[in-house]
Protein 1
Amino acid sequence: ALFQAASSMVLNCWGREGRFWHAVMKNSKQEVPGSTTVCAPQVCSQQQIQDEIVPIFYHKVMSSDDDSVLADVKAQELSHWADVELDFVILGVDGCGSTSLRRNLGKHTGINFTGFSLYADDEDFFLHEMGRQTLPFMWQVEAFAAKRAAASQHVRPGLIGLYQAGIW
């Protein structure tokens, strides 16, 4: 349900020719009193989202004039999983066999994994970096596409998959 709601919000925003943003608000003590998502016109820059759109949204939704919550606003554009060029994904939880599945599929000559491992053979760069986000940030999708393009020069052709044993 969480993924469907997030997916629906980003797709509805794009259907209105907008850009979908995630904003984190920190107060002057660097505490995080909240975060939100907002659909904004395509012409809005990241700086405009942070300086103008989120404060307007916050004041209207929260019916508050307390600007201390808006001491530090960081906005990042969100994307959608459909923009991540993958043939399949393996997700799992501790002890369910997803690691064994990945290792066995990895032996097949026509199956590849993203292989952007930084920490261990069984951890995938893209989702490890993302943590437990419901939607990927635009910069993550772009970084993944660039790494995939670079890797395609050195990796055998075939299906490409993403492995993350503990996404949820």
Protein 2
Amino acid sequence: PPTSTRTPRKGVMAAAAKLVRKIINTPLAPRAIGPYNQAVVVDTTVYLSGQIGINPESGELVGPSVEEQTEQVLTNLSHVLEAAGSSLRNVVKTTVLLADLKDYAAVNTVYSKYFTEKQPARAAFQAAALPKGAKVEVEAIAITGCLVDE
């Protein structure tokens, strides 16, 4: 791996060394299907890997419709957030990947049931293909602790 020849400024290394990285995996959400974890917490920030609509018990997609898959995706994200000490209320950013951008409105209908107020920032893209032939994938960034709105 590349290494830096730069010398860190005095105090920078000490401050950075105090950050703790915690790996999050819960049996209530599908196991990662690659070399990654369901989430990683650094300080008070939770970085959630993309979830697709897999039932964690069967390991299979929940159904053919984008609505069914979106429900499962958001349920999976919720379980990972809980394992990380957070919740959907503390999500500050999501990225939605769609196999077909024509499903945008249907995904929004389900999404709005999970994010009812103070919705997070979001980006949405059409992807050429998603794992296991999924129709939707969502990744998120959240925080732990008490989130105060202004």
Protein 3
Amino acid sequence: KKRKRTPSQIDKKKANSREEDKKKKQELENQRKAKEEEIQLKQEEKKKTEKLIEKEIKQIRQEIEEIWIQYDVNKDNNQIQQEIDEIQNELLVLKEVHLIRKEILGLMDDLEVIKEEEQQRIMKEEEVE
């Protein structure tokens, strides 16, 4: 046999049921809020990480730029050094040429003196004859 419930028992059961529904609803709401907070924290963490990564990338780009500048400077320095070496070699050649010219002029002077002496000797011999 089913027991009949009194209206107050039915009201109590409905009240309990409503109370349980409220509790479940509140629990779901709390879970939803917790999930939202977790998502927000993750997003904030992601933003922080992205900013750090951007900062790192910027720093790396700057370092690369400095390396390229240094490379260009070194390249320019190497080129300048090569040009200096070439100029020094040309100077050495010019000095050699100058010394050779001096020697040739000296030899020409000597030749001139020898010619004059030879002419004077010939003239003396002619006078003697």
Protein 4
Amino acid sequence: LYYDLRSGTSKEYRMPNSVGEYKFTYEGFGVNFSKGIFKAEANEKNLLTRLCLGFAASTLYLLVQPVPEDIHSVRVKWTAWGALSKAIEPPFLRNDSLQLLILSGWNERRHMPTNKNLVRAKKSRNCGLVMAGCLGYGGLWI
């Protein structure tokens, strides 16, 4: 949900939640996570703002997505039985094929302030850090 503070209007945008290209369009400006491409109209007046929106959306996607410590072992499990089940492939297994997520920090995910990293920091420092959010993909992977 996008709420425009200047006009007081709100708009709803959704990222795809199935296998395929991850992309969205905002007022004629296209953001393609799969290819890492931004598409603007020739007369776009707010190009910098739109580029920031694309990177902000991809960074936020990474920050809120639960990711296990050992993605390789989850990938092996998913390859072994995931295709045979009715389960939905965990989104983090697709992140390394989405170019915009790679540009936004997927390869540096251990250094991003995600919920998982905040929990790890809390445990290692034994501090009273409080955080919100979910810590797992249905409690199954993390």
